[in-house]
Write a structure and sequence with these properties.
By secondary structure, the chain is mostly helical. The protein contains 16 helices and 2 strands. It has helices spanning 16-22, 24-42, 60-63, 70-77, 81-97, 101-111, 115-126, 133-144, 150-157, 172-197, 201-209, 214-238, 246-252, 258-261, 264-273, 280-307, and strands at residues 53-54, 65-66. α8 packs parallel to α13. The relative contact order is 0.11. This is Sugar ABC transporter permease.
């Protein structure tokens, strides 16, 4: 007995020219974004050529003398290079330690059942994001300064000696971490709250029917469901591992803690803008070094996450 099989009709693919014409209005809408990306992101990258030149503003990029890797050799031979690299990596490593904080905050906010309390907490933790680092540094001085700081006044009233927190190398890194955490944890949790809101509610209903409590639902449903978002945010975080917030470090810097807070950003400022120097090529080489390392870390982290079964960003 012959068995009839259904054959799927092959739809001929349209030529590329006709496909573009069919979606011409969509491409037209995308042109402004492409132009902005071209002029704001790609054309300025020609300035990276200055890292391989003795750049002279009067001669321009094409007319300046080419020196190859001379500025990179100067950077690696600088006695302060490894100090700056160490300080940058320490501050970035401490920020990675606090990376799970927005995740935990989003999980806790998701478990709040009172709408009023949830909105109040969200407003309270989002507000610091909109404060400038100058205000954050002023609040830190108000709390921790030796003579006028609120904490030292309380300590003195209790019979203890005041502590010079802002001038102590033992305290400066914890202060930097607490500042960053207070300022960014609420804002960064928005991404995870958005991911949580997209979870299928039927999963929770099925888990509750099987006897799961709220903590088990959070650990077995919520956290695994937002893990792809966590992975993407981690990859993006690795893209700034050799960069720190210039304003924060610059405002918290002083002669007593400079050995722990001298990073690439402050070094560029102190040796170019602050002194009126024209080391355009050298500072460009420093920035290019940071960009190359950050890009390499993004690619490496993306490769590791893909090996673990996640999509990644590349």
């Amino acid at each position: 007995m012959a068995v009839k099989t259904k054959t799927k009709a092959v739809v001929p693919q349209k030529p590329l020219r006709k496909q573009i014409y069919a979606y011409r209005w969509v491409y037209l809408l995308g042109i402004p974004g492409l132009l902005i990306m071209l002029f704001m992101n790609y054309l300025p990258m020609r300035g990276l050529l200055m890292a391989f030149q003795n750049y002279n503003p009067h001669l321009g990029i094409l007319g300046s003398e080419w020196v190859g890797l001379e500025h990179f050799q100067k950077l690696f031979q600088d006695s302060r290079f490894y100090t700056m690299l160490r300080n940058t990596l320490v501050i970035s490593a401490l920020s990675l330690v606090t990376f799970p904080a927005p995740i935990f905050l989003a999980l806790l906010l998701n478990e709040l059942r009172s709408k009023f309390m949830k909105k109040f907490v969200q407003t309270a933790v989002y507000l610091p994001h909109f404060l400038s680092w100058a205000i954050v540094a002023s609040l830190t001085f108000f709390l921790l300064s030796t003579e006028q700081g609120l904490i030292n006044k309380i300590a003195t009233a209790m019979g203890n000696e005041p502590t010079a927190y802002l001038f102590s190398t033992a305290w400066i890194y914890p202060i930097i971490v607490i500042q960053s955490l207070w300022k960014s944890v609420g804002w960064n949790s928005i991404v995870y709250l958005a991911a949580i809101s997209g979870i299928d509610q039927s999963l929770y209903e099925a888990a509750k029917m099987d006897g799961a409590n709220r903590f088990q639902c959070m650990m077995k449903i919520t956290l695994p469901s937002i893990m792809p978002t966590v992975v993407v945010m981690l990859i993006l975080k690795m893209g700034s591992i050799v960069s720190v917030d210039f304003e924060q470090v610059f405002l918290m810097n002083n002669a007593m803690v400079r050995s722990h807070l001298e990073v690439f950003e402050t070094y560029i400022y102190n040796n170019s803008i602050a002194t009126g120097s024209t080391q355009y090529s050298y500072t460009t080489a420093i920035g290019m070094f940071k960009s190359v390392v950050n890009t390499g870390l993004v690619v490496l982290t993306n490769w590791i996450t893909r090996r673990k079964g996640y999509d990644g960003v590349l």
